Amino acid sequence: MASSRESDLVERYLDHLRLERGLSPRTVAAYAADLVAWLDFAGLAPPVTASALGRLGTRDLRRWLGHLEAQGLARSTVARKLAAVRGLFRFAVREGLLAVNPAGRLASPRRPRRLPHTYTVEEAAAVMAAAGDDTPTGLRNRAILELLYGCGLRVSEVSGLDLEDVDLDGCWLRVYGKGRKERVLPLVGAARAALARYLERGRPVLARSRGGSGSAPGDREAVFLNRLGGRLSPRGVQLIVARAGRAVPRVHGHPHLLRHTFATHLLDGGADLRAVQELLGHASLSTTQVYTHVSHGRLRAVYERAHPRARPEGIASDGAV
């Protein structure tokens, strides 16, 4: 039987991501695929032991990065693959299996920062209005959209909401974000009103739709239910948002667009950047700062339209030279 030192480090690392860090199955699968491709390039086959991993150095990793760049991969893809490999080495060092992390000396390719698309205030109102009618599913859909826009929730956070996470009287909402990190959000205004209507008049009807065998135990306390009375899946949330998003054909409607809009409208209204970071559940302030670029872009557009000195030099307001 192999000792812990000689067991498959990759499997141990993936278990660490899954069980200790609480990453989603999809994210863990992406890490696993990147590591398999890297191991193939490095000529390593499972089980990958600490001694085998320790024979690789920074020069080997640089050669691998050059191979990726020669394939014409996007910088964001190369950075993601490097993050998977760097994480494996970091895990091995932390576990006392390696003395140094050769990947720690490598700089990640700088990713081009893409500004998120957002709705205007008027467009967001149009999407909310397109949510549905006063039927149980219509009340549910409106509550979902109002929470996405009014609280900045991720789609998984909406799907994962349980009844015990909602306090209408205290006006707060508890959600579990990436890595099962808990945060408590204010639940006020249109979001609270829409959720209260759904819980009073929509959810009880959907709950009675459960079949004779009942739904899974974890579904019975779900806030948002599907037509069969089970927990509404993240895919179901995406479809609801996509349908309502047709009210604004300028952009494709999806849950993260409403989250982007939530953050941008808060900053446009004068909210503190660190407060927005807390509301979004971002681990790093730099992740939140992308929204300041969106707001600054709008300020510049207003300035260029309104200020006479913002026009090209020598051109008068009437166009005469």
What does the model show?
This protein is mainly alpha-helical. It has two domains: 4-105, Tyrosine recombinase, N-terminal domain (DNA polymerase, domain 1, Orthogonal Bundle), CATH 1.10.150.130; 121-303, Intergrase catalytic core (hpI Integrase, Chain A). Helix content is 54%, strand content 4%. It has 14 helices and three strands. The chain has helices spanning 9-20, 25-42, 50-54, 58-70, 75-94, 121-129, 136-151, 155-159, 189-207, 234-245, 255-268, 273-280, 285-288, 290-306, and strands spanning 166-167, 172-176, 182-186. A three-stranded antiparallel beta sheet has the order 1-2-3, with no helix packed on it. Helix 6 (121-129) runs antiparallel to helix 7 (136-151). The chain is globular. The model is unreliable at 1-6 and 314-321 (pLDDT under 50).
Question: What is this structure's SSE topology?
Answer:
Elements: H1 9-20, H2 25-42, H3 50-54, H4 58-70, H5 75-94, H6 121-129, H7 136-151, H8 155-159, E1 166-167, E2 172-176, E3 182-186, H9 189-207, H10 234-245, H11 255-268, H12 273-280, H13 285-288, H14 290-306
Antiparallel strand pairs: 1-2, 2-3
Helix pairs in contact: 1-2, 2-5, 6-7, 7-9, 7-11, 11-14
